Amino acid sequence: MATIRDVAKLAAVSVATVSRVLNNNGYVNKETKEKVQQAIQLLQYEPNTMAKGLAGKKTETLALVLPDISNPFFSEVARAVEDVAQLYGYTVVLCNTDSDTDKEQTYIQVMKRRYVDGMLFASNTLRAADVLMLNKANIPLVVLDRAPANVPCLVVRSKNNEGAKLAIRHLLDTGCRRIAHIYGPQETATGKERLIGYEEAVRSFPWYSPTLMEPGQFSIQGGMAAAEKLMERHPDIDGIFAGNDLMALGALKKLQQLGIPVPGRVSLIGFDGIELTRITEPELSTIAQPIYEIGATATRLLIKKIEGVQLENETYECEVELMARGSTRGNAEAGR
Predict the structure, then answer these.
(1) Which helix (H) or strand (E) holds 219?
(2) What is the CB neighbour count within 10 angstroms for residue 256?
(3) Which of 158, 192, 176, 269 is closest to 223 using CA atoms?
(4) CB count, 10 Å around CB of 71?
(5) Domain 4-47: which topology?
(6) Which residue, 258, 226, 229, is CA-closest to 241?
(7) CA-CA distance, 146 to 124, in Å (whole number)?
(8) What is the pLDDT of residues 284-334, one digit of tens each?
(9) Burial of 54 from C-beta contacts in 10 A (0-12 / 13-18 / 19+)
């Protein structure tokens, strides 16, 4: 069985250089990297094979794969994962992918080689093939919020469709008569389900039109651009449901720049319940997810799987709650 020293000798490089190539950590020039990779293939070297074979050996490490830690939703998820993991004696490795498929693939391969005990994914780019590969490698995983399509896995998320309908009902109840939707990426379950919820809630109204929907990419900048396009297209819009709070924050900023009073002329509501919605003026109404609970529940389920508990590949859906605040009519007392 080949060792890392055998690879280094065949490639005529140091063991440290081989380690850098294996872990994609540190600079290695292209020519040297190719020599190391050829040596690995020739020797059929499998990193840490002997360590993996030690009976009952665990690293007591979990990997948390997130698309963007700067999004406060994922920061709160990470906080919950770390808290619960620590209670059970596990350390968490954070993998921030920036929604980059290649970057996520690198993280998956590195974590697999380092033999983490399990992985948590809150990812736009997790593929069905990745889930099948991890299952084959006996690496337990749980998906938070954003599930890949057409592959069985254990998922923890909120009731996105129901939450979208709750947002529309609130806007209608507070007097809105022409409601637009800023939606998230349709390759994500959250973006798609919230858009479907919006359409199901408004399709029967005579004012409904597909032109009342505009993509916002789950970002502040996307929310700003979408709000501007919607108001240009339909100046009579009096309500906007944004598919997440970052897009709602962007929409609020753009409406204020355009001199459109919120909620005087346009009522605005988001989705997620991040803390930033409480520091705007007016405070943003939102459909609040139990963000901490989602992260904590997913971590407990993953640890159960690691410890050998047989769990079905189910979807755990958490309840959502309307937080009616100053950005929607009739809720001038922020935080009510």
Answers:
(1) none
(2) 13
(3) 269
(4) 20
(5) 434 Repressor (Amino-terminal Domain) (1.10.260)
(6) 226
(7) 7
(8) 999 999 999 999 999 999 999 998 888 888 889 999 999 999 999 876 443
(9) exposed
Q: Which fold has domain 160-290?
A: Rossmann fold (3.40.50)
- 130-166 exposure pattern, b = at least 16 Cβ within 10 A, e = fewer: bbeebeeeebbbbbbbbbbeebebbbbbbbbbebbbb
Rg (CA), the chain: 24
pLDDT category at 252 given cuts 50, 70, 90 is very high
Please tell me the distance from the alpha carbon of residue 250 to that of residue 226, in angstroms, as a whole number.
Answer: 9
Q: Residues near 5 by Cβ (< 8 Å), separated by ≥ 6?
A: 15
Q: Does domain 56-158+291-319 have CATH number 3.20.20.70?
A: no
Beta carbons within 10 angstroms of residue 324's beta carbon: 20
* DSSP at 153: -
Residue 80 has pLDDT above 60, yes or no: yes
Q: Quick check: do 4-47 and 160-290 share a fold? A: no
pTM of the full structure:
0.79
Q: Residue 17 above 60 pLDDT?
A: yes
Provide the residue type at 303 as one letter.
I
Residue 325's Cβ-count burial label (10 Å; 0-12, 13-18, 19+) is buried
Contact (Cβ atoms closer than 8 angstroms) between residue 42 and residue 34: no
The model's pLDDT over 104-134, given as tens digits with 9 standing for 90+, comes to 888 888 888 777 999 999 887 788 788 888 8
C-alpha 10/C-alpha 325 separation (Å) is 66
Domain boundaries, the chain: 4-47, 56-158+291-319, 160-290
DSSP labels, 300-316: HHHHHHHTT------EE
Alpha helix (H) ranges present in the chain?
Answer: 4-11, 15-23, 30-43, 49-53, 72-87, 101-113, 128-136, 160-173, 189-202, 220-233, 245-257, 291-306
